[in-house]
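Entry type: protein chain
Record version: 2
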Amino acid sequence: MTTAAAGSPRTYQVRTYGCQMNVHDSERISGLLEDAGYVRAAEADEQPDVVVFNTCAVRENADNRLYGNLGHLRPVKARHPGMQIAVGGCLAQKDRGDIVRKAPWVDVVFGTHNIGSLPALLDRARHNAAAEVEILESLEVFPSTLPTRRESTYAGWVSISVGCNNTCTFCIVPSLRGKEKDRRPGDILSEVRALADSGVLEVTLLGQNVNSYGVAFGEPGEPNRRRSGDRSAFAELLRACGDIDGLERVRFTSPHPKDFTDDVIAAMAETPNVCHSLHMPLQSGSDDVLRAMRRSYRSERYLGIIEKVRAAMPDAAITTDIIVGFPGETEADFVRTLDVVREARFSSAFTFQYSKRPGTPAATMDGQLPKQVVQERYERLIACVEEITWAENKKLVGETVEVLVAVGEGRKDERTGRMSGRARDGRLVHFATGELAGRIRPGDIVHTTVTYAAPHHLNADGAPLAHRRTRAGDAAEAGQVPRTPGVLLGLPTIGAPAAPPAPIGGCAVH
């Protein structure tokens, strides 16, 4: 017996935790399931036939969050025979068989290297009435060969590499995603062209360390040694994106300061559709802490990169990641981080309290700090960052910005009568629609004037100066999403998703 009505396609829901790589992997998972005949469950459907958890293992509470959500689904599944639960992603790669031992109602566990096996594993688990656990130790098929159901009509992720060759002592990602593997430039550009041909305006090139791209283009037998001509592979890729018709914005995340080169700065400055926004993880401003983290740069090198970027692109918005409370961090180390934050003048920062992850070298280091010390420093860091981001945002009041209208960026938009989107530099802008209310769609382009600045966003409360309707806006208005074929030969198709069955009740989605 299954929860789907006889003759109806089975419905699915994907719940995603973690980074942009996980978000993009979830698009692959959705594409695979739809290619196998599943249909996406309606937003209000509390009882899909298949629930897939795409997990993250970076933060300490990742395990608790997953098992809590699995616990909520246990009675739902008990009431609806035939429902299946799958767990994939980094936490699945790490915990493997422990997931089924702790939550025996889970049907499938798959890892970061075998996303493409999910439909077959679901079928096998259903046929055998037993859990299927399949974890591969290395990547066999690059994820971008898999079909993809894109979540946006106007912006798309394009993976240029997977894995990481760095050995940061706090990070568990290399052991879960494996060594870096790079896609060939032609395959990447084919996918970008296909997205642009379907109306997508903005593409983000995605990798654990994008500016080491090309490391795998070595001589036969030397896969991790670059030939001299490959040292500029990432800069050349950025420039090649500038030749793609219809592509208006190119972003990338995340680079590593140790690999960041002047040719990338030049490519950003000289390629018109590459946005002047840069996410450059700092992690700490203390050289001693950076050394303990095994981050192979120092604060002077980091600030030197920022200086070069701003010399080439004075309007560049630079964002970062910072960890507070790494083992052995002293008050002097923390103060040095605040000094670097003040000097770098970030437009935004993702700030984290150090999280001990079993299996990482940092987890067994001496000098683990008390929670109250880390919390107090974290609050001081937040105050420092917000003081700077607010001051930087205030400089834009009175300036005209180009906004790519987005979905879900403004939680108060319905109440305030505004819409929201991102400026070219990545800043969030909430804007009034004026007489264009009802005519502006997600995916359209609006020019408007900033009237107010807050630490994390800009407001533009006057009437828009200009509004350009786009093919992405047309698709959003029609309820359509791009679907990229797995082989990447030809163009993505666009079409309205098949209507899922009506909701039939159950517990709330968490």
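Comment: The CA atoms of residues 55 and 89 lie 5 Å apart.
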